[in-house]
C-alpha cells in the first residue's frame, strides 16, 4: 500500500461516497466524509437505503462503464469470498436475463467475464421470450451491507461527520487542509451552489417485497422491464420496478404493487397466484438520475481538484466499487476513459 496520507474530503455517505472512501483509504489517502444523511434513517431522498439490490453486470455501456461494472463485480465477488453473507449482506445467486428478441452482443458484453455464463436453451425459460442467458451473480441487502461498509471504512481510518454544506467549497470550512474534494452527493448535486447540475433530477422508484423461498435473480429486459431480486438472508423477493421522474412522494402506490406482482407471476409462474403471494412491505426511494448518464470526472480550474461521482440512477450499487477505483485514478491524474 502506498501511503500518501493526503487529506481529502468526500461529500456524501451513500454507496457512492462510502465506496469512494473505501478505495481512497486503500490507496493511502486520509479521508473525511461529510454528509447530512446516513444509512438506516428512513429518508426517501437518501437513495442507498432503498435499492434491491442486484449486483449483476450492467447491460451495454461505454468501455469505461463496462470497466466500472467489471471492477465492481470483481470487488463484490472478493468480499463475498472473505466474509459470510450474514456479515456483509452479499449473497451469490443464479441470475437469468430474459430478452424479447435476440440482443445485440454488445448488451451481453460480459459473457466472458461472468462466472458460469451460458445461453439458456428455450426449454429453460418461458415461451414468450426469444433469448435468455444465465450466470452466477450476486445480490445485496442494503440494511446489512451499508452498516458493514461504514464499519469497514472506519476501520481503514475514514472519519465521518454529519454536516450539511451548501456548496462543495464549504467543505473546506470543516476540513481546511483537504487537498481535494470528492463530490458523491447524489441528488444534492442539483442544488449545491457551485455544482447546480440541472441534468440530475429526482426519479421515484417503488418495489415490493414478498416472502418466498425462491432464490433466482430474474431480469426481464425490453418492454415491461421487470426484476425479481432475492434476499435469501431475509427470505424475501423484491419485485419491481418503476421510474417516475420528478415524483418525490413517499406514499406507495397500491396499483404499482399489483402490477409488480402480476408481472412477476407472468415471468415466474412458480411464485404461485398473485392473490396468494405473501406481501411483506412496499419500498419507495428517489433515485438521482442524470440525463446523459452518471458523472465520473475530474474538474480543474479552482484552487483544488474536484472529482465528481454521482447520478447513478438505478445502478449505483452495480457501479459503486469500480467508480471508487475510478475516483482514485482521476485524483492521481492517471489515464481514464
Ligand atoms: C427502488 C430502488 C431500487 C434500486 N435497485 C438497485 C439495484 O438493484 N442495483 C443497483 O445497483 N442500484 C439500485 N438502485 C439505485 C441505487 O440505490 C442508487 O444508484 C444509489 O444508492 C445512489 O447512491 P449515492 O451514494 O449516489 O446517493 P445517496 O444514497 O442518495 O447518497 C447521497 C449522499 O449525499 C449526501 N448529501 C447530499 N447533499 C448534501 C449536502 N448538501 N450536504 C451534505 N451531504 C449531502 C446525502 O446526505 C447522502 O449521504 C435502486 C434505487 C431505488 C430507489
UniProtKB/TrEMBL annotation:
A GO CC annotation given for this chain: cytoplasm
Keywords: FAD, Flavoprotein, Oxidoreductase
InterPro entries, alphabetized: DAO (IPR023209), FAD-dep_OxRdtase (IPR006076)
Single GO MF annotation: FAD binding
Record has Ubl conjugation as a keyword: no
Homology family: Belongs to the DAMOX/DASOX family.
Occurrences of domain FAD dependent oxidoreductase (ranges): 8-329
Required cofactor(s): FAD
Record protein name field: Nucleotide-binding domain-containing protein
Pfam families registered for this protein in UniProt: DAO
Tagged with keyword Phosphoprotein: no
Entry coiled-coil feature ranges: none
Amino acid at each position: 500500500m502506498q501511503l500518501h496520507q493526503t487529506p481529502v474530503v468526500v461529500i456524501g455517505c451513500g454507496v457512492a461516497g462510502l465506496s469512494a472512501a473505501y478505495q481512497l483509504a486503500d490507496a493511502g489517502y486520509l479521508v473525511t466524509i461529510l454528509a447530512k444523511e446516513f444509512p438506516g434513517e428512513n429518508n426517501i431522498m437518501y437513495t442507498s437505503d432503498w435499492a434491491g439490490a442486484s449486483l449483476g453486470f450492467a447491460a451495454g455501456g461505454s468501455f469505461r462503464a463496462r470497466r466500472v461494472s467489471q471492477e465492481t463485480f470483481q470487488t463484490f465477488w472478493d468480499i463475498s469470498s472473505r466474509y459470510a453473507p450474514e456479515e456483509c449482506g452479499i449473497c451469490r445467486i443464479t441470475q437469468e436475463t430474459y430478452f424479447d428478441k435476440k440482443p445485440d452482443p454488445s448488451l451481453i458484453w460480459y459473457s466472458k467475464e461472468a462466472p458460469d455464463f451460458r445461453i439458456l436453451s428455450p426449454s429453460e425459460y418461458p415461451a414468450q421470450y426469444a433469448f435468455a442467458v444465465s450466470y452466477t451473480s450476486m445480490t445485496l441487502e442494503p440494511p446489512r451491507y451499508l452498516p458493514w461498509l461504514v464499519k469497514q471504512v472506519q476501520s481503514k481510518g475514514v472519519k465521518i461527520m454529519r454536516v450539511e454544506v451548501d456548496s462543495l467549497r464549504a467543505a473546506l470550512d470543516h476540513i481546511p487542509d483537504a487537498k481535494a474534494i470528492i463530490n458523491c452527493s447524489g441528488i444534492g448535486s442539483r442544488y449545491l451552489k457551485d455544482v447546480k447540475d440541472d441534468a440530475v433530477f429526482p426519479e421515484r422508484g417503488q418495489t415490493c417485497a414478498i416472502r418466498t423461498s425462491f432464490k433466482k435473480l430474474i431480469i426481464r429486459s425490453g418492454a415491461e422491464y421487470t426484476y425479481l431480486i432475492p434476499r435469501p438472508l431475509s427470505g424475501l423477493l423484491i419485485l419491481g420496478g418503476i421510474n417516475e421522474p420528478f415524483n418525490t412522494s413517499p406514499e406507495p402506490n397500491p396499483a404499482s404493487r399489483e402490477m409488480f406482482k402480476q408481472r412477476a407471476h407472468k415471468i415466474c409462474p412458480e411464485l404461485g397466484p398473485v392473490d396468494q403471494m405473501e406481501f411483506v412491505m412496499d419500498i419507495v426511494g428517489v433515485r438521482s438520475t442524470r440525463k446523459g448518464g452518471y458523472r465520473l470526472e475530474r474538474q480543474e480550474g479552482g484552487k483544488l481538484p474536484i472529482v465528481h461521482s454521482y447520478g447513478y440512477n438505478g445502478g449505483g450499487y452495480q457501479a459503486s466499487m469500480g467508480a471508487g477505483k475510478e475516483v482514485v485514478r482521476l485524483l492521481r491524474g492517471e489515464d481514464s476513459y
